[in-house]
Amino acid sequence: MEDKIRVLVVDDAGVMRRAVSDILNSDPMIEVVGDAKNGLLGLEKAKELKPDVITLDMDMPVMNGISTTRHVMIKCQIPIVVLSSLFTDGAVTFEALRLGVVDFVPKPSGAVSRDLNEGRERIIERVKMAASVNVDNIRRAKLPIFAADEAGAAGGGAAPEALVLMGTNLCGPNTVIRTMAHMMRMPQTSIIVIQSISNKILPSFVEEFDKFVSWRIKALQEDTIIEPGVCYIGSNENSLVLDHIGDEKYAVMVGEAVDKPIDMLYNSAAESFDGFIAGVLLGGIGDDGAMGLANIREYGGVTMAHDNHYCVFPNLTENAIQQQVVDRVVNDHAIPGAILETVRGHLHMA
Predict the structure, then answer these.
(1) What domains, with CATH codes, occur in the chain?
(2) Interval 3-54: pLDDT, tens
């Protein structure tokens, strides 16, 4: 018989601890082995019980969720799934994802509310996925010292000459933060990212993210004309389709969720964008993205994948590499430089 996933629930509200525990214990593959009412007690329980996964609230007395995450990542290296009502606080959502939590799930509005029941499957799914991470590859994204006046303005309505597409899902925001924090802005280029992040969190996350990088960072939650010098981030809770709308302009159309949102974005861009495309596949679960990379390559673009030895979840990149649709495999530190080198090289030749 397969061992159950052992979970520690940390939340200052007793009614929420019971509710989350009941949800998790209702699944035959999960067992809640303990709970704690603040981060300090949670750290003590984590050392004692050695759970496979921690579910963690952010707004707690004694030691809050951000401080707890920092300590867990240093002392215990246990995957964390955040369940918090602070999803509109960009400083909290950005910092939690920067530190390497598996996901930040908006906490349902009440322990007996309809929201809690509707969120049941997502909570269970995220805990199961967290239990399968390569925990040694969980790391915080280091941010360079950056002055706000170093950021360039958007392209003022001009169409980009090059396009960088980044696709990822679970644990992807952390890798995206690391990549963008160390990538010099390219004023002739637009970046479109599709990643696993709740639409409830996306606006505040992007607003905070924009403070730390040389690119302008904007959320994709409605149809948007893209401009060079901007990195657009969308959630895989939606489909993203790039379309040529005339007058040398391109727009991302935001639609309903689909099974393979990375493939949909990559395919639409390959077929509609007249400039150079670099398709970058980061870590994640499943087999999304490989078909899209093949299409980008067929239309003359270059494809890259995050080396699966460095991924928290290696499935996405491993599949693409096996399908032989990747031109270049790069590790964590090499991704920003590889993108810059590739795009600049092709723009120089054009």
Answers:
(1) 5-137 (3.40.50.2300), 148-349 (3.40.50.180)
(2) 999 999 999 999 999 999 999 999 999 999 999 999 999 999 999 999 999 9
pLDDT of residue 69: 96
Average pLDDT over residues 65-86: 93
pLDDT tens per residue across span 84-122:
988 889 899 999 999 999 999 988 665 455 556 667 888
Long-range own/partner contacts, residues 119-123 (CB < 8 A, 24 or more apart)? 120/23, 120/26, 123/20, 123/23, 123/24, 123/55, 123/81, 123/83
The C-alpha atoms of residue 200 and residue 37 are separated, in whole angstroms, by 25
Nearest to 138 by CA among 182, 88, 79, 191: 79
**What CA–CA distance (Å, rounded) separates 228 from 189?**
5
Residues 252-283 as b or e (16 or more Cβ within 10 Å = b)? bbbeeebebbbbbbbbbbbeebebbbbbbbbb
- Tokens standing for 50? 């050695």
Query: Which residues share a beta bridge with 253?
Result: 241
For residue 249 the two structure tokens come to 């302009």
The per-residue pLDDT for 14 is 93
Torsion of CA 79, 85, 87, 90, to 10 degrees: -100
The amino acid at residue 279 is G
User: Bigger pLDDT: 108 or 144?
Assistant: 144
Q: Which residue has the higher pLDDT, 118 or 126?
A: 126
Is 246 in contact with 232 (CB distance < 8 Å)? no
Contact assessment for residue 169 and residue 285, using Cβ atoms and an 8 Å cutoff: yes
